[in-house]
């Protein structure tokens, strides 16, 4: 029998395929499970991916990487005894993207498996970790991120009228756009704002690039088209005289306006079109000029595509945005619409606008930097550092919480922003800067002749990476990152569940804070750039390969928050 010697290009190692392969190896084919193991015919056999879980704590990673708990083994096998043939399948695990298994044993807590760590380090790091810094699969499609907080009502919002809850929605829309673009989606933002307006200057100070148009630009043609479509739609209610009186929105109607109120039955829209998740109390809505303007902006943003519209709104504005969504549907727009709803932002003891909040955090960041670095905190370089660090602080404060939950901010002026301690954006940016400083130190060592240039990964023995913190950094951060990037697009694609969509938008911030804690612990414990002795170079280079992957991981994750890395502090 001839062997097939064709070798496939190895796939990047992934957690999910490994868990699935381990589950299939343990579960086997149903017909191969011994009668004594099946018990009665009502026994439930879990799906393969539910049989194992990945370890993540430093304590457990000392003796295992994956565990199938004894409760699962008892479900599959009599008395939880794993047959030798099954254990052999687990230990000889192979497959695309599957981590190599080194050992496995049944203990009181269950069947624990240990990965061949040297082989995993080599597979991930030797050729560069580029494939681990991007989504595992590319998607296609168009998404319009609509931010109701930025629409004219009837005037363009300003930093002084923008609430903290609305600022949270803007930052979330910006983050979602970066995540979706990374996955291959074409992303546009709505509404278009007047260039050189105060709100655009404010957003740019936060690193947000929002679409603009000349100050004298109008969207009147589309507004007229939307108005006409609504006047002729099947959901229009009988017109009522209104003259000089107050409209449904509380606005006084002036002479010269259309004397008949245009009212749309929104409840009929979502009932007759089978749209789930909309508030049954929407009822009938009077169409006002700012609503038509909002719809015309949506029409502009979706003009050239069959886009999904993702409305990123605060819980206070959710009802109003559902009205807008159903008006848009009534006008003939057939785009899929989803609502990403943010909880409130609370500031006990004070009330701040978005502008005041940013000004407070910038002042605190400057003060904290001056206390730590002294007189050197001056000039354009430090202005840029303080701007980015302030932006990072604001993002981590408003985006690290589940988007549906409230955020409570400490905005007492004497509180300050600490440059120390494992919390938030400052801590993350500081540890990113430490990696840049490390590589700068290495390059200076090369220039002085202390160290040779980093060799090709294929020339290194990655079994030198034995420190427990090294495996934790690879296994908990570098390898899983691509699957973390996949999640926002998967949630957007999911059918059912109604108008609202829940996306784990807090995960990148939490990932970066956790990474920074573990990297900081490792960096404080391990002297990476050791003595310039040849017999120590292999281990040093292996560590530099790992830390180079971490540096690129920081860049990739920060990019989804539209934060540039700080390279020097």
UniProtKB/TrEMBL annotation:
Quote any Pfam family the record assigns: DALR_1
GO molecular function annotation: arginine-tRNA ligase activity; ATP binding; tRNA binding
Q: Which residues form the signal peptide?
A: none
Chain segments annotated as transmembrane? none
Point to the regions of Polar residues compositional bias. 34-43
What InterPro entries is this protein classified in?
DALR_anticod-bd, DALRD3, tRNAsynth_Ia_anticodon-bd
Q: Start and end of every DALR anticodon binding domain?
A: 428-569
- Sequence segments annotated as region (Disordered): 24-44, 237-256
GO BP annotations of the record are: arginyl-tRNA aminoacylation; tRNA C3-cytosine methylation
PANTHER family given in the database record: DALR ANTICODON-BINDING DOMAIN-CONTAINING PROTEIN 3, DALRD3 PROTEIN
- UniProt-recorded name of the protein: DALR anticodon binding domain containing 3
């Amino acid at each position: 029998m001839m062997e097939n010697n064709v070798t496939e290009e190895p796939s990047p190692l992934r957690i999910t395929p490994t868990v699935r392969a381990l589950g299939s190896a343990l579960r086997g084919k149903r017909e191969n499970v011994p009668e004594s193991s099946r018990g009665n015919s009502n026994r439930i056999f879990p799906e393969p991916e539910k049989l194992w879980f990945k370890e993540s704590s430093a304590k457990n990673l000392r003796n295992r990487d994956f565990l199938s708990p004894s409760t699962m083994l008892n479900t599959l096998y009599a008395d939880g005894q794993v047959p030798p043939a099954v254990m052999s399948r687990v230990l000889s695990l192979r497959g695309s993207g599957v981590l190599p298994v080194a050992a496995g044993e049944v203990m009181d807590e269950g069947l624990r498996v240990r990965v061949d760590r040297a082989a995993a380090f080599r597979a991930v790091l030797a050729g560069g970790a580029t494939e681990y810094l991007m989504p595992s699969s590319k998607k296609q499609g168009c998404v319009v991120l609509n931010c109701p907080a930025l629409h004219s009502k009837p005037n363009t919002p300003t930093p002084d009228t923008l609430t903290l809850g609305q600022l949270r929605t803007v930052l979330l829309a910006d983050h979602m756009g970066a995540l979706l673009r990374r996955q291959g989606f074409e992303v546009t933002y709505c509404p278009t704002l007047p260039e050189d307006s105060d709100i655009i200057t404010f957003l740019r100070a936060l690193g947000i690039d929002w679409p603009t148009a000349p100050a004298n630009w109008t969207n009147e043609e589309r507004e007229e088209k939307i108005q006409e479509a609504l006047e002729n739609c099947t959901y229009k209610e009988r017109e009522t005289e209104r003259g000089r009186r107050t409209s449904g929105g509380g606005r006084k109607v002036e002479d010269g306006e259309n004397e008949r109120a245009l009212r749309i039955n929104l409840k009929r829209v979502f009932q007759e079109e089978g749209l789930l998740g909309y508030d049954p109390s929407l009822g009938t809505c009077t169409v006002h000029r700012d609503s038509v303007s909002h719809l015309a902006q949506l029409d502009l943003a979706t003009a050239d595509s069959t886009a999904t519209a993702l409305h990123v709104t605060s819980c206070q504005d959710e009802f109003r945005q559902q009205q807008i969504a159903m008006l848009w549907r009534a006008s003939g727009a057939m785009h899929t619409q989803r609502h990403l709803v943010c909880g409130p932002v609370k500031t006990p003891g004070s009330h701040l606008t978005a502008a005041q909040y940013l000004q407070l955090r910038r002042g605190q960041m400057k003060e904290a930097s001056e206390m730590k670095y002294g007189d050197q905190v001056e000039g354009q370089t430090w202005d840029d550092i303080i701007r980015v660090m302030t932006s990072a602080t604001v993002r981590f404060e408003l985006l690290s919480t589940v988007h549906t939950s409230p955020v409570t901010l400490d905005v007492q002026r004497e509180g300050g922003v600490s440059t120390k301690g494992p919390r938030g954006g400052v801590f993350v940016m500081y540890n990113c800067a430490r990696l840049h400083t490390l590589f700068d130190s290495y390059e200076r060592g090369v220039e002085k002749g202390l160290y040779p240039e980093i060799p090709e990964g294929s020339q290194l023995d990655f079994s030198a990476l034995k420190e427990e913190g090294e495996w934790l950094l690879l296994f908990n951060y570098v390898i899983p990152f691509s699957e973390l990037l996949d999640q926002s697009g998967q949630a957007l694609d999911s059918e059912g569940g109604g108008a609202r969509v829940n996306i784990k938008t807090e995960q990148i911030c939490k990932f970066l804070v956790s990474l920074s804690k573990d990297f900081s612990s490792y960096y404080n414990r391990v002297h990476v750039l050791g003595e310039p002795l040849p017999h120590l170079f292999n281990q040093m280079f292996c560590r530099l390969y790992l830390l180079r992957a971490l540096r690129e991981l920081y860049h990739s994750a920060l990019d989804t928050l539209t934060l540039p890395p700080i390279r020097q502090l």
